[in-house]
């Protein structure tokens, strides 16, 4: 099984010609509301790829409102076990996203229920030996730490997608088997304070060399694919698959969900990353964070192409 502990948001996406400046109002020519949140997007991808109802569990928090009901039923519809979604007295998380014609975007996130975890909810994560736990950082740091330690205790494999970047993620690494980051998130782990500057000037390889962590590391690098540094070995690049990318929102989440599914199926790290690259690439071919046609057959076609 794959257990995802993380965020759920309702994304409200407005397409605009040019992003509004402070104080300005612009007309939007497109409206899309869709299920999002890093955790839920990863659960979606893992469930679509395994295709086996109940194999993926989503642990998270939603409000007692229409948005929460919608997010839960969308996940249930693709076979995600939603028995461990808590309804809490807060609004469901929302993301307000404006996307400019060239793809440039601004995002404001209201965490809401994602920050209102009831005591004990993370500790009750339904994880067993042989499962893969996946966590990201759109939920409180203490919840991430608790989920990782529960998984460690039962002997499950742990995957931390340290996104969005948080310097405190360094304190979690002792309980992490596989770390998945992009260059910016890696920079935050390597050097507090100057993460943005560092990610733009330092090659990923040298940041990896400076990282104080011995587990498996996967660095996603967009159209170039991923750099894989297996435990105590040299990094090797696994190329992306050629796709016509129109919107990379959610590509990283599909990558992580697919990777976790592959690891749970017993794939080795490199096989898992090849499939994850295909899932990320496919997701970049559609608008929005979730590809409606994502499944193992679609991924296999991309891997072969
Ligand atoms: P993030 O948005 O989290 O920084 P990336 O942009 O690195 O994530 O994308 C995640 C993964 O999605 C990449 O590692 C790659 O596998 C796939 N991907 C993203 N953009 C493209 C693209 N233009 N072509 C092919 N694959 C892509």
Write up this protein:
With 305 residues, the protein is an alpha/beta fold. It has one domain (2-6, 38-92, 116-304): UDP-N-acetylmuramoyl-L-alanine:D-glutamate ligase (3-Layer(aba) Sandwich). It has helices at residues 38-50, 66-77, 141-154, 183-190, 195-201, 204-210, 251-264, 269-283, 296-304, and strands at 2-5, 9-16, 28-36, 56-63, 85-88, 93-100, 105-110, 132-135, 157-161, 178-182, 216-220, 226-229, 236-238. The strands form 2 sheets. Strands 5-4-1-8-9-10-11-12-13 form a 9-stranded mixed beta sheet, sandwiched between helices. Strands 3-2-6-7 form a 4-stranded mixed beta sheet. Helix 4 (183-190) packs across helix 5. The protein is globular, with a radius of gyration of 18 Å. The mean pLDDT is 94. Bound molecules: adenosine-5'-diphosphate. Adenosine-5'-diphosphate binds next to helix 7 and helix 8.
Main pleated-sheet profile: 9 strands, mixed
Low-confidence region ranges = none
- Inertia-based shape: globular
Helix content: 25-40%
Indicate the CATH class. Answer: Alpha Beta
What's the CATH architecture? 3-Layer(aba) Sandwich
According to CATH, the homologous superfamily is: Ribokinase
Summed up, the helix count is 9
Summing up helix and strand content along with how strands pair, one would put the structural category as alpha/beta
- Compressed to H and E, one letter per element, the order equals EEEHEHEEEEHEEHHHEEEHHH
Mean pLDDT, to the nearest integer, reads 94
Instruction: Identify the strand order in the major beta sheet.
Output: 5-4-1-8-9-10-11-12-13
Number of DSSP E strands: 13
């Amino acid at each position: 099984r794959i257990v995802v502990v993380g965020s759920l948001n309702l994304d409200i996406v407005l397409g605009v010609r040019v992003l509004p400046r402070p104080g300005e109002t612009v007309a939007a020519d497109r409206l899309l509301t869709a299920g999002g949140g890093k955790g839920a997007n990863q659960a979606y991808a893992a469930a679509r790829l395994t295709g086996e109802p109940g194999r993926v569990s989503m642990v998270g928090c939603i409000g007692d409102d229409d948005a929460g009901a919608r997010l839960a039923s969308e996940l249930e519809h693709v076979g995600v076990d939603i028995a461990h979604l808590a309804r809490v007295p807060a609004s469901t998380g929302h993301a307000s996203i404006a996307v400019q014609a060239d793809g440039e975007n601004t995002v404001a996130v209201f965490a809401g229920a994602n920050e209102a975890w009831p005591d004990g909810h993370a500790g009750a994560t339904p994880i067993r030996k042989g499962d893969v736990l996946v966590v990201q950082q759109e939920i409180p740091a203490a919840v991430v730490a608790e989920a990782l330690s529960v998984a460690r205790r039962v002997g499950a494999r742990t995957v931390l997608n340290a996104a969005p970047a948080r310097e405190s993620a360094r304190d979690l690494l002792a309980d992490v088997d596989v770390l998945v980051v992009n260059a910016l998130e890696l920079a935050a782990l390597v050097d507090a304070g100057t993460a943005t500057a560092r990610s733009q000037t330092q090659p990923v390889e040298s940041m990896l060399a400076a990282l104080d962590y011995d587990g498996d590391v996967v660095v996603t690098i967009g159209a170039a694919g991923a750099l894989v540094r297996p435990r105590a070995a040299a990094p090797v690049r696994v190329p992306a698959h050629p796709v016509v990318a129109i919107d990379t929102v959610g590509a990283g989440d599909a990558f992580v969900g697919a990777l976790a599914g592959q690891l749970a199926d017993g794939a080795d790290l490199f096989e898992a990353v090849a499939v994850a690259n295909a899932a990320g690439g496919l997701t970049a071919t559609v608008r929005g964070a979730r590809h409606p046609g994502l499944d193992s057959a679609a991924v296999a076609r991309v891997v072969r192409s």
